[in-house]
């Protein structure tokens, strides 16, 4: 194979050569270590929650309850199947997002430049790397010069200058200049590839998931503790080990949250799908959950609040010509293609005013003279020399010019001076104006109870003008004011400001971290290399449409449409996700307390279990189907950030669970003393009451106010109706459990219906007392 380093830099590889090399060396990517789907499925039987159910199954088998053992294993399998299906769905969603976000690189092939996917690069390809690009493979610079950020690869804190002949590793970030380079190694053969292969499966853990598992762990402790107390009571009363094992199994099944993994997966997948329809691609699924608590949103100015496009905002004539004439003549001093941002802005502004003449010659910006020059023939045939540059260069010592410059600068405008044959012609005030939807976005963010904070590398005058115009405020400080202060003073300064100007990338990261240290949950938007550290640090990092590769790779969500509405959409969806998980937690805590209190009180009062092991197995099955419907329920978003208060949630749900247990005891008393049921029928009656109350409980706790104030989803209603109907038929016909008379079924439904309304009123009072929701 010919040495790729000897290829012609003017033509690059041919398509045939590139195809052959791609076949030989493979795609430029780190191969994903795909897990055997069989092993992945079996792994769902391994973990703290599966262990408890497996222990319950083993104890049930030892106690001779073969049918109950089979039911427990079916429960485990159902949840493993649902979890695996949702995981595969999430993996496909992430893979699709990856294809949407796949980096593309300008590559020279067959003598022409074209953007191709980075994964199709091969050794010998000639690539162009502009500001903000990430080196897609190991390369060697052939022309140009730049500064590159290698901090993610080598830990170097300062950019490294590179020029022709220098090598760059994959992952190097272009932070100044541009280069042309030749690819030397791709995929796992690159320096970054060898490192990335070791960490490709690393994933950050969600704060919300940790809180949920903490609540679940506490509930399991309650179940285990109750089973120990009742088990000791049974041993003291003379029960055998087999009977005690049955008691323990029943309590464990009542406390283990079998459906949690499946519910979490369904909620995350539903949120990601909903956001994708709004033009937000979520690259880290659990970030949507964490975003519910965001109370400060840091907004990058350039490219986020503003359009990152200079516009001529003000024209100040410095002679006897009009503003229109001054602008038209200024256009003749520009390079006609408008490749430079200032020239493009002047040409756009002058475009509708017609031509003042024609350009004869153009001299680009000269670092020595610090100006551009152009020779032009005016409409009257006069030939003139036009120059454009900084006012202090073209009009030094002119007090009138200086006064105008100060006035424009105070308004946050950048000044450019234009001269005609050496005499001042006019001043142009340029700015990067806010997006049309920026002020509306800031207002909507504030309406969500979130404080906007602007961060920008621009000078403080520019930043203050933009922040004031979009409604953020005018308490803009310099980032330098933070440096050197003690952390407590830094936090106080950040808390008191509306934003910071003249920031470095490290300053943005510091500000986000300081806010987090102060107890805030932080969102961050950005589009550039300098935003990447802060995007990665924030609970929710949003890369806006058109962001650089490094910003998108650091973010947890990417906006794919112009405008900033996706930010508010993400806040709304995250709060819906929170409300669904709050419903699940309240329902779970209420159910555990209800079941544990009922079984404990029943055993201590009667010396027998009020629910059989088979009844508990069926109850867990019914509960799992019902709780999965919570993941797609209709919910209303809150008007302020959501934060988990575990003590309040547990207290309110625990008290509600105790009230449900009292209602269940009332049904048991009705069955024993009014309907005169035998022990086996009484167990069926209490099991049936628990099943019906499970549906009532879910429909009750899903709404923070009275249950009729909002409609549940059609899926939730269908599941509740289906479970209730199936169990009604089951107890009437006596399938698996002893049969009940129709009178007992009607009495149970009546008590649960009337009691449900009373318990709904109690729920509202408890939620208000403990500020739940």
Explain what you see.
The protein is of the alpha/beta class and 773 residues long. 52% of the residues lie in helices and 16% in strands. The chain is built from 27 helices and 21 strands. Strands 8-21-20-19-9-16-18-17 form an 8-stranded mixed sheet, sandwiched between helices. The radius of gyration is 34 Å and the shape is elongated. It starts with 14 loop residues before the first helix and ends with a helix.
| N- and C-termini, Cα separation | 67 Å
The average pLDDT value, as a whole number, equals: 82
Helical residue percent band: 40-55%
Radius of gyration from the alpha-carbon trace, in angstroms: 34 Å
> Which structural class do you get from the secondary structure elements?
alpha/beta
Report strand order across the widest sheet. Answer: 8-21-20-19-9-16-18-17
Question: What is the tally of helical segments?
Answer: 27
- The count of DSSP E runs of length 2 or more, i.e. the number of strands, is 21
Task: Report low-confidence residues grouped into runs of 5 or more.
Answer: 1-7, 96-101, 154-158, 195-205
Q: What percentage of amino acids are in beta strands?
A: 15-25%
Mass-distribution shape = elongated
Largest sheet: 8 strands, mixed
């Amino acid at each position: 194979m010919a040495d790729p380093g000897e290829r012609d830099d003017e033509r690059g590889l041919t398509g045939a050569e590139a195809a052959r090399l791609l076949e030989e060396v493979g795609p430029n990517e780190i191969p994903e270590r795909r897990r055997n789907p069989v092993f992945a499925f079996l792994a769902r039987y391994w973990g703290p929650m599966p262990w408890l159910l497996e222990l319950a199954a083993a104890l049930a088998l030892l106690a001779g309850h073969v049918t109950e053992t089979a039911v427990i294993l079916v429960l485990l399998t159902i949840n493993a199947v649902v979890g695996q299906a949702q995981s595969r769905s999430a993996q496909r969603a992430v893979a699709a997002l990856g294809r949407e976000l796949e980096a593309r690189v300008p590559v020279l092939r067959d003598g022409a430049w074209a953007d191709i996917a980075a994964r199709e690069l091969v050794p010998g390809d000639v690539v162009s790397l502009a500001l903000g690009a990430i080196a897609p493979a190991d390369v060697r610079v052939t022309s140009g010069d730049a500064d590159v950020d290698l901090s993610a690869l080598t830990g170097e804190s300062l950019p490294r200058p590179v020029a022709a002949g220098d090598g760059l590793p994959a992952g190097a970030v272009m932070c100044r200049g541009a280069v042309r380079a030749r690819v030397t190694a791709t995929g796992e053969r690159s320096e970054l590839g060898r490192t990335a292969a070791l960490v490709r499966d690393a994933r950050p853990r969600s704060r919300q998931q940790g809180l949920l598992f903490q609540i679940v762990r506490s509930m399991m402790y309650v179940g285990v503790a109750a089973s120990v107390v009742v088990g000791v009571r049974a041993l003291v009363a003379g029960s055998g080990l087999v009977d005690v094992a049955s008691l323990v199994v029943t309590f464990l099944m009542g406390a283990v949250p079998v459906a949690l993994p499946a519910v979490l997966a369904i909620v995350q997948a539903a949120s990601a799908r909903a956001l994708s329809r709004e033009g937000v691609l979520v690259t880290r699924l659990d970030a949507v959950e964490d975003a519910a608590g965001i109370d400060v949103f840091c907004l990058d100015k350039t490219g986020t609040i503003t359009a990152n496009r200079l516009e001529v905002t003000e024209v100040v004539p410095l002679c006897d010509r009009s503003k229109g004439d001054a602008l038209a003549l200024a256009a003749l001093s520009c390079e006609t293609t408008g490749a430079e941002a200032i020239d493009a802005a002047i040409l756009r502004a002058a475009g509708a005013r017609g031509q003042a003449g024609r350009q004869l010659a153009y001299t680009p910006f000269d670092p020595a003279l610090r100006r551009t020059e152009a020779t032009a023939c005016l409409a009257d045939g006069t030939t003139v020399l036009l120059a454009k540059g900084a006012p202090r260069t073209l009009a030094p010592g002119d007090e009138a010019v200086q006064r105008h410059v100060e006035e424009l600068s105070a308004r946050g405008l950048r000044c450019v001076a234009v001269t005609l044959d050496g005499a001042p012609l006019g001043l142009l005030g340029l700015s990067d104006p806010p997006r049309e939807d920026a002020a509306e976005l800031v207002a909507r963010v504030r309406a969500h109870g979130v404080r906007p904070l602007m961060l920008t590398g621009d000078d403080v005058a520019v930043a203050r003008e933009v922040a004031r115009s979009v409604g953020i405020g005018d308490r803009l400080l310099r980032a330098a004011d933070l440096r050197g202060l003690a952390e407590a003073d830094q936090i106080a300064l950040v808390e008191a400001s509306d934003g910071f100007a003249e920031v470095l990338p490290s300053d943005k990261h510091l500000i986000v971290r300081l806010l987090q240290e102060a107890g805030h949950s932080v969102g961050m938007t950005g589009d550039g290399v300098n935003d990447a550290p802060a995007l990665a640090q924030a609970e929710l990092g949003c890369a806006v449409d058109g962001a650089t590769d490094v910003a998108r790779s650091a973010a947890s969500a990417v906006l794919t449409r112009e405008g900033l509405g996706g930010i508010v959409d993400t806040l709304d969806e995250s709060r819906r996700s929170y409300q669904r998980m709050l419903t699940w937690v309240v329902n779970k805590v209420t159910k555990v307390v209800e079941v544990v209190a009922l079984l404990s009180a029943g055993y201590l009062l009667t010396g027998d279990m009020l629910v059989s092991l088979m009844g508990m197995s069926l109850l867990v099955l019914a509960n799992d189907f019902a709780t999965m419907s919570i993941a797609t329920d209709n919910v209303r978003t809150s008007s302020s950030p959501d934060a988990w208060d575990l003590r309040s949630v547990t207290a309110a749900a625990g008290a509600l669970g105790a009230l449900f247990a009292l209602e269940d005891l009332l049904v048991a008393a009705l069955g024993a003393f009014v309907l005169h049921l035998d022990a086996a029928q009484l167990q069926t009656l209490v099991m049936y009451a628990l099943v019906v109350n499970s549906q009532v409980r879910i429909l009750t706790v899903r709404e923070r106010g009275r249950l009729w104030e909002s409609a549940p989803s059609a899926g939730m209603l269908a599941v509740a109706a289906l479970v209730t109907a199936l169990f009604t038929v089951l107890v009437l016909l006596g399938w698996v459990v002893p049969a009940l008379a129709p009178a007992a079924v009607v009495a149970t439904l009546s008590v649960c219906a009337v009691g449900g309304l009373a318990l709904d009123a109690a729920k509202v009072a408890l939620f208000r007392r403990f500020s739940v929701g």
